[in-house]
Amino acid sequence: MKVTMKKIAEEVGVSVTTVSHVVNGTKKISSEKYNQIMEIIRKHNYVPNYSAKNLRSQSTKTAGLIVPSFPDSYVTGYINSISRRAKEMGYNLLFINTDEDVDYEQETLKLLHSNMVDGIILSPSAKMEESESYSEELLDSSLPIVLISRYHEAFQHSPFVTQDDFQAGYDAAIHLLQHGHRDIGLIYAVSGISPTKNRINGYKKALEEYGVSFNENYLEKGHATVEGSRKAVKSLLEKNKEITALFVLSDLMTIGTISGLKEMNKKIPDEVALIGFGDFPSAPIMDPPVTNISLSPDTLGQTAFDLLLNKINNPGYDKTVHIPNFLITRKSCGC
Amino acid sequence: MKVTMKKIAEEVGVSVTTVSHVVNGTKKISSEKYNQIMEIIRKHNYVPNYSAKNLRSQSTKTAGLIVPSFPDSYVTGYINSISRRAKEMGYNLLFINTDEDVDYEQETLKLLHSNMVDGIILSPSAKMEESESYSEELLDSSLPIVLISRYHEAFQHSPFVTQDDFQAGYDAAIHLLQHGHRDIGLIYAVSGISPTKNRINGYKKALEEYGVSFNENYLEKGHATVEGSRKAVKSLLEKNKEITALFVLSDLMTIGTISGLKEMNKKIPDEVALIGFGDFPSAPIMDPPVTNISLSPDTLGQTAFDLLLNKINNPGYDKTVHIPNFLITRKSCGC
DNA sequence: TAACAGAGGTTAAACGTTTTACTTCATTCA
DNA sequence: TGAATGAAGTAAAACGTTTAACCTCTGTTA
């Protein structure tokens, strides 16, 4: 049986209150009693019951982290920094991967409202952002929520931190345009979510600045896997033989795209230049080394947690942060 | 303010007990009252307080997951399947990355003893397994613990699930030996932990079967990163120019090794054959495609969770499971 | 008709803390 | 001396559930 404060108190011959004060340092206790109590605590390896603590204090020192997909190198990156930050701040982390399942996401959010967590860092599932609305109970509740990476307007009054997708799309396209490309294909996985939309908007804006008209056919959707993009790139290039450059919106898809191009015997970058998205470990030693938009998931995660802490302490808090990205130039774009 | 059962009960004019029975379906309630209660519940978006539930029921339906490093593709893989399994079984997951920090690991374990979780899936930090012992309070406590991937004899009476490291080391070495290699280097990151030890033991056993004597100098330790193994392979090959094949014990290090070999202008597989460890997305399209020992993190994670469930329901439960690995042959081993 | 069973509800204790408001006693100060 | 102050400790309520035990009807059975 677990030993409780009551048992400790009885054994020492003191009140539960006193034990509590010793454990928490909330009141001065004579060193005589203090030592007696501490001895018994150590003897029994007493550790306080968190359910009871939480119930009484109405706080759990736990944050919920809800991600839409896993493992994914980017998500993985920010989970890591969130977990580090949580640790530093004395918080625990309740981890939930919704696997893009809208119903499970809603169910989970509801569950977390049960005083299970003090706040939530949420990256909505794709369908959610695209077309669903959150139930009112979530919205008018006072549970602090911070959005990360993906936006949903239901939470327009919550803090939001994201990689700067518009800038990323813009930078990649500008770089290719500067080097003479005019027919730039774009391979993406998930439509409807803000990252995809904003990246495409950045790409469009760049085209516009160069007076190149936007061609809907140059956008190719594929499954968010190596295999998916291998198929996608073939389909895209068969339909549009004039394409000379590609911008691929994820790391796994970048790998698949290279694989597809190799199978088609397309030389990178001579026949098709390539810019990928998200740095992955093998990018520098691929054949050819891959130029890509490098993200900062670490900064993203850390910022998310700090925003959450602010939101918890100050319910009116509301801020949007854009984390900049950087183009890392290697051989695959031919520049 | 949060609405509680008490408020619901008052509003309907019924006892708290009745509300509880409606919420949990623990007793037959007349449909008249049932409907009234449900209506008010929905009106207020009532959701039960989990701290109170947990306190009363002495269970949290939450499992702790303590990993030694993150992100790491293998760890990431099993986290994913653990989280999926937890979801299926109605459990929550408290995620902790110790970052190989022994003190934090101990502190965390202690914390989780506070009725925060119903059980723990643990992969000990390296130093822990190498030289530290767990405090008694953890060992004689009744909190169910399952070890995953890394072993620690303190938990010899807990279930344990691991990839079959001995077999992996053996298979890789046998494969290279069969193809005529006699001077096989091995690059690893963390000594002292069971995976490394067992892989090396498997490698030794294979050498023995082929009557090749084991050479201590062929083992090279490096930092568990791309950069670390790039340095390691250079150092190893400079000291031992006769080496014709390499076995590398992690995916990141495989990437770094290839990078190092390229910088040294060593042709793979003609001058140095290579077998890596752990499948990574770009392995098939590297130059050359990489032969490796493919692990099954999914099976590992799922098994871990199932073992934990068994352990929770039956404290005497104790089982060790070895998940087999497979050699995936591609170009880099020259076979 | 008496005894019983079952349906539908309620009361109150219990889970293990924290914390407010009290008590008691010794000391200090004027 | 008497009042005020402070130090050390305690009693009891509160947090929001679950659940064993009990109660009160109504209808059934012998």
TrEMBL record, chains A, B:
Keywords per UniProt: DNA-binding, Repressor, Transcription, Transcription regulation
Protein's recorded name: Transcriptional regulator, LacI family
Alphabetized SMART domains for the sequence: HTH_LACI
Highest taxon listed in the record's lineage: Bacteria
Keyword field contains Transcription: yes
Originating organism: Salibacterium qingdaonense
PROSITE patterns xref list: HTH_CROC1 (PS50943), HTH_LACI_2 (PS50932)
Residue ranges constituting the HTH lacI-type domain according to the UniProt record: 3-57
InterPro entries: Cro/C1-type_HTH (IPR001387), HTH_LacI (IPR000843), Lambda_DNA-bd_dom_sf (IPR010982), Peripla_BP/Lac1_sug-bd_dom (IPR001761), Peripla_BP_I (IPR028082)
SUPFAM superfamilies referenced in this protein's UniProt entry, alphabetically: lambda repressor-like DNA-binding domains (SSF47413), Periplasmic binding protein-like I (SSF53822)
GO molecular function term, any single one: transcription cis-regulatory region binding
Domain HTH cro/C1-type: 2-47
